[in-house]
Design brief:
Helix content is about 45%, strand content about 15%. It has about 300 residues and is α/β, with parallel strands linked by helices. The chain has two domains: about 80 residues; about 160 residues, Nucleotidyltransferase, domain 5. Strands 1, 2, 3, 4, 5 and 6 form a six-stranded mixed beta sheet that branches.
Length: about 300
């Protein structure tokens, strides 16, 4: 990850919003705080937990590039908390995500013309043991299969050619996937892939009343995938067509695998949709970096 992140470009983006240091103790370096913030997101650590982990882990120390021989200390938990608050209140998470998307586009890593949409549920705590005696009012329950889930739903738009995330929306879990799909489509998209949950998206008013959205080819998987018989012996066209759709659409499932298995995002960490969207944006920012690193590229080859 260290080899693919454009640190200078990210630091320049944060600098106008960063603390000036006119009062109080001098602020820590932007790059050091960003490195610490990313470690916290990648390994699902608390403010105190990531501070302790940097002292304990040699790999974390290398990533932070802190000179311990020169008595340099790790930024404390309070400093990280203020930096995380800055990232949320100034909208820097969205800016970083958009900046990385532009970086990928500039280096030819994004292929335009097609988008894959999908959504996944992230559960929230159901406990009412708090001062108000209530669950998070912005989270809701939804039934999926034969089980109820309480939490949020992350909607992503993935580039159909390369598999990088280019759009993200966060809603309550009971928000239908098909209602968010138009917000995940880019201006130059011509094809949209989705699972059976997006059936009927082309019939929605906001789609057929829009000249661009109504012209898109919606390739949505059907629920009864193998309903129709073969037109000729040995040729099952319905099965073949649905298989071709799924071969493209499967790229979005790998994004969720990285999000939930590599970065362990299976439970929400904050109360409210807004803070959790900031967290989701940083994780999708990290997913794109992970995919870039997996491709074997580094900053030296991109410059």
């Amino acid at each position: 990850m260290d080899a693919v992140i454009p640190w200078d470009e990210m630091a320049v983006l944060i600098e106008p919003y960063y603390f000036s240091g006119e009062r109080g103790r001098p602020p820590r370096g932007i790059e050091s705080m960003l490195r610490m913030y990313l470690l916290q997101n990648w390994f699902t650590l608390s403010d105190e937990g990531v501070e302790d982990a940097i002292y304990d882990s040699y790999a974390f120390k290398q990533f932070m590039k802190i000179d311990f021989m020169g008595n340099e200390q790790v930024p404390d938990a309070t400093t990280l908390c203020k930096f995380r608050k800055l990232m949320h209140e100034s909208g820097l998470a969205q800016r970083l995500f958009d900046s990385l998307k532009a970086f990928l586009d500039r280096h030819g890593k994004l292929m335009h013309g097609g988008t894959i949409v999908d959504a996944t549920i992230i559960e929230a705590p159901t406990s009412t043991k708090n001062a108000e005696g209530k669950r998070d009012p912005e989270m809701h329950s939804v039934k999926k299969g034969n089980q109820y889930y309480f939490g949020e739903r992350i909607h992503v738009g993935v580039d159909a050619g390369s598999g990088y995330v280019h759009s993200i929306e966060v809603t309550a879990a009971n928000t239908s996937e098909v209602t968010i799909a138009p917000q995940l489509i880019r201006q130059d998209d011509e094809v949209l892939y989705g699972d059976a949950g997006y059936r009927g998206v082309e019939k929605r008013p906001e789609v057929y009343q829009d000249s661009h959205l109504s012209s898109i080819d919606y390739r949505i998987n059907t629920r009864n995938r193998y309903r129709y018989k073969a037109l000729a012996p040995g040729l099952d066209w319905d099965r073949r067509i649905e298989s071709q759709k799924s071969r493209v659409r499967c790229k979005v499932e790998y994004v969720f695998l990285v999000l939930k298995r590599i970065f362990k995002y299976q439970k929400v960490r904050f109360r409210g949709i807004a803070k959790n969207k900031t967290h989701a944006l940083m994780l999708c920012f990290s997913v794109n970096l992970f995919l870039l690193a997996q491709s074997g590229l580094c900053q030296a080859s991109l410059e």
